[in-house]
From TrEMBL:
Pathway involvement of the protein, from the record: tRNA modification; tRNA-queuosine biosynthesis
Record-linked SUPFAM superfamilies: tRNA-guanine transglycosylase
Function per UniProt: Catalyzes the base-exchange of a guanine (G) residue with the queuine precursor 7-aminomethyl-7-deazaguanine (PreQ1) at position 34 (anticodon wobble position) in tRNAs with GU(N) anticodons (tRNA-Asp, -Asn, -His and -Tyr). Catalysis occurs through a double-displacement mechanism. The nucleophile active site attacks the C1' of nucleotide 34 to detach the guanine base from the RNA, forming a covalent enzyme-RNA intermediate. The proton acceptor active site deprotonates the incoming PreQ1, allowing a nucleophilic attack on the C1' of the ribose to form the product.
Record domain tRNA-guanine(15) transglycosylase-like: where: 10-368
Family: Belongs to the queuine tRNA-ribosyltransferase family.
GO biological process: tRNA queuosine(34) biosynthetic process
Binding locations of substrate: 89-93, 143, 194, 221
Region of interest (RNA binding), residue spans: 252-258
GO molecular function, one term: metal ion binding
Protein name as annotated: Queuine tRNA-ribosyltransferase
Gene: tgt
UniProt entry tagged with the keyword Metal-binding: yes
Length: 376
């Protein structure tokens, strides 16, 4: 399934063949939480924006419209008219970040819906069942998302439980994939490394879950408030213990600079709400740095958002027009900005792949890692 094609120092160039098509790594996955990108972007738009993989959320789709509804509609791919790979996260992060009241037990987590407060239970089997009903290409294992910082003793107990949950996830997925009415009987499973910011616990947990020979491995519990350098340090600690010939996914990351730096440390896959969320507030990413389109200086600027970009927004509209749309609170403003940012992120990983192919990744990193973090 995953083929490591080339390396440039620790930077990796790969190809991942799935039942819903092959995608190239490093890869950015566009976040469509409720089976839609916020900002009025449809699955049809995503094809023009170079999207390889869509990410959808188990927790949100379980609540609305309900995973059984999605299954009845033929699964997520048919429901949202997307024929390329879809990754669904397990719902674990949302359980721990959105639920006001929750109780963790060995069997799973009892919590209240953030929508109407009704009581819900989710454990490894339930998460796998929901993701099987959704029919995603890649399902993420159900884990406990640990806050940073957390007490060492608590983290040690938590990762042991997460490993036990992972074993249950694997067994339940194998059972579900054997059923005749399962939408995607080739659904893949990724495990998630946890351990807060404790090196020894991160390493131990990675060793434990690597022994289960899963389809891929993620680093979770980062980009949740710790310093950027601390995040990079944890990646450096964990990476040597990650299986070489399995894809590596850094969850919830991040800025263009974060992606470049994580690729330099051996990561293959990324997701983040940042490009769409920032775009809806008039902040866009360009090859010269970060731009805020509400600024007065763009009021009569006839240039595209980024003169080096050929996205649908930059091909057709000026900075002045988009600034006007934001000032007038027109919904089109967010749509045009989101289109640009998603295209930018997908082009960024495309250029990273090209740089690795040509043994020029370090030059690319040296030119763009800091530049793309600069505010214009």
């Amino acid at each position: 399934m995953f083929t490591l094609l080339k390396t440039d120092n620790k930077a990796r160039r790969g190809s991942f063949e799935t039942v819903h098509g092959t995608f190239q790594t490093p890869c950015f996955m566009n976040v469509g939480t409720a089976a839609a990108i916020k900002g009025g972007i449809s699955s049809v738009d995503l094809r023009e924006l170079k999207t390889q993989v869509e990410l959808c959320n188990t927790y949100h789709l379980h609540l609305r419209p309900g995973d059984h509804v999605v299954k009845q509609m033929g699964g997520l791919h048919k429901f949202m008219n997307w024929d390329k790979p879809i990754l669904t996260d397990s719902g674990g992060f949302q359980v721990f970040s959105l639920a006001q009241l929750r109780k963790i037990k060995e069997e799973g987590v009892y919590f209240a819906s953030h929508i109407d407060g009704h009581r819900i239970f989710m454990g490894p089997e339930e998460s796998m069942q929901i993701q099987s009903n959704l029919g995603s290409t890649i399902a993420m294992a159900f884990d406990e998302c640990i806050e940073n910082p957390s007490p060492y003793k608590y983290v040690a107990a938590s990762i042991e439980r997460t490993t036990r949950w992972l074993i249950r996830c694997k067994e339940e997925m194998e059972r579900l994939n054997s059923l005749p009415d399962t939408i995607n009987r080739h659904q893949l499973l990724f495990g998630i490394n946890q351990g807060s910011t404790f090196d020894d616990l991160r390493i131990k947990h990675m060793e434990d879950i690597a022994a289960l020979d899963l389809d891929g491995y993620a680093i979770g519990g980062l980009a949740v408030g710790e310093a950027t350098e601390e995040m990079y340090r944890i990646i450096d600690v964990v990476e040597p213990y990650m299986p070489v010939h399995k894809p590596r996914y850094l969850m919830g990351v991040g800025t263009p600079s974060n992606i470049i730096e994580a690729v330099a440390r051996g990561v293959d896959m990324f997701d983040c709400v940042m490009p769409s969320r920032n775009a809806r507030h008039a902040t866009v990413f360009t090859w010269s740095g970060i731009m805020h389109l509400n600024n007065k200086c763009y009021e009569t600027d006839p240039r595209p958002v980024d003169e080096q970009c050929d996205c649908p927004t930059c091909r057709n509209f000026s900075r002045a027009y988009i600034r006007h749309l934001f000032k007038a609170n027109e919904q089109l403003a967010g749509r045009l900005a989101v289109q640009h940012n998603l295209y930018f992120y997908n082009t960024l990983t495309e250029k990273i792949r090209e740089a690795i192919d040509k043994d020029r990744f370090e030059q690319f990193r040296g030119k763009y890692s800091q530049l793309l973090a600069t505010r214009i």
